[in-house]
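so i finally got all the pieces together for this one. its two components total, 305 residues if u count the protein bits. some of the lines might not be protein, just check the labels. i wanna see the whole assembly predicted at once instead of chain by chain like last time, that was a mess tbh
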Amino acid sequence: MLAWVIIVSIITAGFSVALVGMNATKAQGNAAASAFESVARQPEAGDQINRMLLFALAFIETIMIFTLTVALILLFANPLLGKLS
Amino acid sequence: MERGPEIGPRVVGQIFGIPITNTLISLQIVSLFVILLAFWLSYKPKETITTRQNIAETLVEMFKRYLSGFLEEHIAEKYFSFFATLFLFILISNWSGFIPGFTSPTSDINVTAGLAIGTILYIQYVAFKERGVEYLKSFVSPSVLFLPINILEQITRPVSLALRLFGNISGEHIVLGIISLLAPLIVPVPIMALNMFMGFIQAFIFTSLSAAYLAAALEE
């Protein structure tokens, strides 16, 4: 039983980080691409677009970091292991 | 049960029964370093500008200009020292992890949680001081129905601030550890350069998000 919990935790952690990495990098790429397009169209608004882009990237990255935290908890501080022993 | 690999702070000793972790020690050293750095940079300004003074003034001017992009001019002037201290402290904490035998204080979730909660409480206090009772009205701004949503928004802010900083810094450390386990010689150097850049960006993001929260709280 303990072995199964460990196996499922490792697989879940790896898959969650892989999936969120895939999708979140795609989203960040979209955001950056649109920002670059806007700067190319309107170079004088570059400063403000830069700031907004930084915020958008930070908020997208938050989801990634939440998943990373869940994965780290599963790998290093799994609360389910304590219930078995 | 055998103990597996660990993450986070490590207890290295005890003083009067209070456990002392390695991040606590490095936190004190970083705080002391920030204070000494600030003293050294601003010690006895002279009439003829020295190099040290010039660098400090340029950095302060740059940061002030950046901050006034979020806040109004007089507000940015008033609370400049708070945000500058926050930025300097987080930046040096992030970069201190590169010293061998040193752990970044920000790779401990307790430190980042304390920072985030303190920042948010200070922002509430500043908003209340600047706007008075009118600030409390903004919690029920469109209608009373929005009260739980507004309070929830205030609660999720420190959580996301703390987790973002902690996750980024400790994630970088884990990646660096794994890479140096695989190829210890030259390969980690570009990763370290990337981590240094990311540490700067994270300090920047934390400060600008706090400034934006303050700007949102002060909005009429």
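Chain B has a mean pLDDT of 85.
Residues 147-182 of chain B form the longest helix (36 residues).
anyway lmk what u think
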